[in-house]
Amino acid sequence: MSLADQSVSPSARPLVKLSNIRKSFGSVEVLKGVDMAVQEGQVVAMIGRSGSGKSTLLRSINGLERIDDGVIEVDGECVDPSQIDLRALRLKVGMVFQQFNLFPHLTAGENVMLALKVVKKQDKAACRAAAEAALSKVGLGHKFDAYPSQLSGGQQQRVAIARSLAMAPKVLLCDEITSALDPELVNEVLSVVRQLAEEGMTLLLVTHEMRFAREVCDSLVFMHGGRIIEHGPPAELFDRPQTPELAQFVGMVE
Ligand code: ADP
Ligand code: MG
Q: Which range is the signal sequence, renumbered to this chain (predicted)?
């Protein structure tokens, strides 16, 4: 049993709770009733083949997709798909994507400060202090004035992580954040995520980094065809898959 499991009392309220989430694009149902709970401080990895619905699920939690049915609760509040208060939701739920999506004409520091200004409406000094702290946390305190084009892909992704962290979210969603990086740049980004995990940040990560998932995550979720068909401790799922689908997936990627 991991530390995170031990610290969860039976009465603890999950930080993110998904109940029977359904979502279709046109006539294609891509989420077919997903249930999941992420406790505070837990690190959950989501794996599965391309097209299994992982990104759609993460995007739904952040209000980037509107679900057709089911209930999403974040920090005890329902994310009502018909009247999502996106601003309030995104103060609680940070998200980092495969593509870093930094503004090329803004420095690293300005990229991080932008959301603080717009969403948190903080004054300039407070924005700057928060941005400096967030960049330092990802090891880029010295790159405040650098433009994205002057940074490596790994550094750009760390700026993107800092941009999310500066908002002090309750949970950070990461969608394949190392998939666009050259192999030699993957580890610097994974180390940042590992450090956040060790500090107790609640994380929900879609990843293809199986060793990382095994070493860092408390819980693993396997999605297949719009459903979670296995979940549990990573070592258990990797070593003793219960479904042929997971056995095949693990054989394919390991
Ligand atoms: P994953 O992240 O596991 O690869 P996605 O959630 O991206 O899976 O996609 C699940 C399915 O939904 C795929 O078949 C994909 O083509 C489809 N899909 C995703 N986004 C859209 C969209 N905006 N419009 C139509 N189909 C989409
Ligand atoms: Mg995806």
A: none
Query: What is the strand order of the sheet 227-232 is part of?
Result: 93-96, 171-175, 202-206, 43-48, 219-224, 227-232
The protein residue with its alpha carbon nearest to ligand 1, atom 5, reads 53
Would you say the CB of residue 23 lies under 6 angstroms from ligand 1?
A: no
Centre of ligand 2 to C-alpha 98, Å, is 9
- The pLDDT assigned to 56 comes to 98
Residue pointed to by tokens 């739904």: 60
Question: What stretches in the chain show pLDDT beneath 50?
Answer: 1-8, 10
Tell me the CA–centroid distance for residue 31 and ligand 1, in Å.
10
User: Which pLDDT value is given to residue 252?
Assistant: 76
DSSP state string for 122-164: --HHHHHHHHHHHHHHTT-GGGTT--GGGS-HHHHHHHHHHHH
> Which ligand has its closest atom nearest to the C-alpha of 226?
1
Q: Compute and round to an integer the Cα radius of gyration of the chain.
A: 18
Q: Ligand 1, atom 23: nearest CA belongs to which residue?
A: 25
